[in-house]
Structures are given as C-alpha cells and as structure tokens.
Amino acid sequence: MADAALFIADLALGLLLGCVFAVVAHGLNLIWGVAKVVNVAHGEFIMLAAYGAYFLNVWFGFNPLLSVPLDAAIGLAAGVGFYFGFLHRELRGKESMGPQSEMVTLVATFGLSLVLINTAQTLWSTTVVGIPWSPGALVYGPFQLPLGGLYVAILSVAIIALSHVFLSKTYLGNAIRAYSQDIPATQLVGISPTFIAAIGTALGFCITMAGGALLTVWLPTGIRPAMGNLYAPISFVIVVLGGPGKMWGSLVGGLTLGVIINVGQLFVGSLSWAYAIAFLVLIPVLLLRPEGILR
C-alpha cells in the first residue's frame, strides 16, 4: 500500500512538473513552428528569466508568480531584438528555410548562447541561488501536493491555452499560422512577412521567459548560469515528442517527460538515470512517429 501511495504521489508530482516543462518548451515550439528556426540559445533565455525572477524577489519581494508578467514583457522585447538581430537578414525575401539559412541561424544562435552563458558567469559567478517560496501544500489523506507546483501547473496550462486561442481565433494569430505554412500566399493577401515573423518570434520568447520564471518554483536552490544546459535539451525533446508546431503537443510532450522523470527515479533510484531514460524515449518516437505523438 505504501508503495502504491508513493507511486501515485510521484505520478502527481510528475504531472505538475510536466506542466512547467511544457510551457518552457512551448516558446521554443512557437519559434520553431513560425520562423522554422531552431534556437540553440533557448536554454540561456530560460536562465535569464530565472535570474529575472530571482532579482525581482531580492529587490522587491516578488514571488515567482508575480514576476511572470514582467519576465514575459522582457521576453517580448528580447524576441523582437532577437529576430532583427539574428534572423531577419537571413530570412527576409525567402520563401522557405534552405540548408544555408538553417546553418547560419544555428551558428548564430549557438554563438549567442555562448555569449549569454559567459556573461552570466561573469556577472553572477557560478554560485547557485534560488527563491525559497512555498505557499504550503494541499493535503488529502496520505497525499500532499505542493501548492506552488499546483499554481504553476494551472498557469502553465492557461498560457498554452491562451496562445492556442490567440493563434486560432484572432486575425494576427491566423496571420502567424499562415506565415508558417506559406510565406508567398501571406504576402499576396497584404500581410508583411517581416512583421508577422517578428511578432511570432517575440511571442515565443515571451512564453519562454514566462516559463523560466515559473520554473523557479521548482528550483529553490537551482538557479545558475549553466542551468540552460539541462532545460534546453528537455525543451527540444518535448517539442519533438509532441510534434514541432503543434500547440497542444507541448503539453503532451511535457506531461510525458515529467511523468517519466519523476516516476522513473522511483524505479531506477537516481534522478540522473531517470533523465537518461526520458531522453532515450525520443529514439523510438523518432523511428515510429517522427511527426510527434500528437496527430
């Protein structure tokens, strides 16, 4: 009975963790789906968002949830700057991403990731910091769910749902979807590809940095310059599992990975091995369903 209770508790925590993984990966999914660019610096923007939440807590006493809107606003500005600084020159006037453009953007974003991580190490050293915020737990019999994790899960799903509504129900959202499918057709109906690509990229960064702030709830002592080295691969795995460009695919992939990691460590006895197993799941998915789990 105790083993069953422990399994259920780990399953519940895995689902909560999967939700925040999902929203962190959702920003990458949007950029990948709209601009067809794989942002190698994705993990470093998660790191910057986490530090943003940390300093807002130190300076103003904000908890991680209160820092989400400010991090998201910074993400919007960063996304516009990222597009015009790294993508616009290579993407303008092109109907699709060719091999040369893919290589240029990969190298550019890889260089950006090195600059960001080294700048962060110079400014904040390698000391691990965190936000020790805990609003309590929801207790039901022998089970306990951290309220912080529950709040984060609800906000994460809400962010993904709002992005889905925006992309499917608004004119600007439909323009972004049209751009991702057919750039020449988008131009024919009078939509500026540059404007739409910039907005789509900015939205992706906005969600990424909002997710980075939410992630700090799970990292009371885990914010450091190199944290992106873990969360960037997690995000890529989630996007591939759910399917690039599929909005709800982020949630499906995130929940899958969260459960595998949290329940997996119960059986293998090591968090490192649980992460290894989660990443290995990608291999059969790529072989059997390269388009992702979600149809």
UniProtKB/TrEMBL annotation:
Transmembrane parts of this sequence: 6-28, 40-60, 72-91, 103-124, 144-167, 188-210, 248-267, 273-289
The name of this protein is: Branched-chain amino acid ABC transporter permease
Query: Which source organism?
Result: Candidatus Segetimicrobium genomatis
Q: Name one Pfam family in it.
A: BPD_transp_2
Location in the cell: Cell membrane
GO MF terms held by the record:
transmembrane transporter activity
Gene Ontology annotations for the cellular component aspect, listed alphabetically? plasma membrane
- How does it sit in the bilayer? Multi-pass membrane protein
- Tell me the Gene Ontology biological-process terms attached to this UniProt entry: amino acid transport
**Which terms are listed as keywords in the entry?**
Amino-acid transport, Cell membrane, Membrane, Transmembrane, Transmembrane helix, Transport
Q: Which interval of the chain is the signal sequence?
A: none
Matching entries from InterPro entries are given as: ABC_transp_permease (IPR001851), BCAA_transport_permease (IPR052157)
Q: What is its main location?
A: membrane
Q: Which family does it belong to?
A: Belongs to the binding-protein-dependent transport system permease family. LivHM subfamily.
